[in-house]
Amino acid sequence: MISEASLGRFGWRTQRPRLRVGENALVKAVAIHHVAINVRDLDEALSFDVGALGMLRRDDRPDFGFPGAWLDVGEQQLHLIVAEAPPNVGQHFAVVVADLDAVIADLRARGHRPSDPSPVATSRQAFISDPSGNVVELHEVG
To answer: Is 24 left (phi over 0), alpha (psi -120 to 50) or beta?
Structure first.
């Protein structure tokens, strides 16, 4: 049997060619089903996510032995888990909104403090922190 080291001495390729990320993967992700975040206080989180951001609480969450909630956000879900939120080092999730200016005005009228909108490519975005410190991007597709 010829060793890989011997093959290399003769200039033969001993390594597979590099593939682009995801190319020839056995699993092909087709969508995001849900994002799970930690929240300190479930009622406070629900007040924000349902009351301020318009998410819908689901009633089909099984009893996992710890408190939490599942919310519908369009075709995706947000899962809330009662636990201390990790320090913010840039992680966030984005929700699509139809009218970013109206959303920002409404949130500010309710006493929340979203950032001013800023352009990103052909879209616009703003950011807001939930009561547990999780960052939510408010994204208007342009």
So the answer is: left
Structure tokens belonging to residue 48: 């924000």
- The gap from C-alpha 134 to its chain's centroid, in whole angstroms, comes to 10
Euclidean distance between the first and final Cα of the chain, in Å? 60
Each domain of the chain, given as residue ranges in start order, spans 30-140
Question: What are the start-end ranges of the E strands in 1-142?
Answer: 34-39, 56-57, 68-73, 76-82, 92-96, 118-120, 123-129, 135-140
Superfamily of domain 30-140: 2,3-Dihydroxybiphenyl 1,2-Dioxygenase, domain 1 (3.10.180.10)
For residue range 18-70, what is the model confidence (pLDDT) as tens digits?
556 666 778 888 899 999 999 999 999 999 999 999 999 999 999 999 999 99
Percentages (nearest 5) of helix, strand, coil residues in the chain: 20, 30, 50
Tell me the whole-structure pTM to 2 decimals.
Answer: 0.80
Strand 92-96 relative to strand 118-120, pairing: unpaired
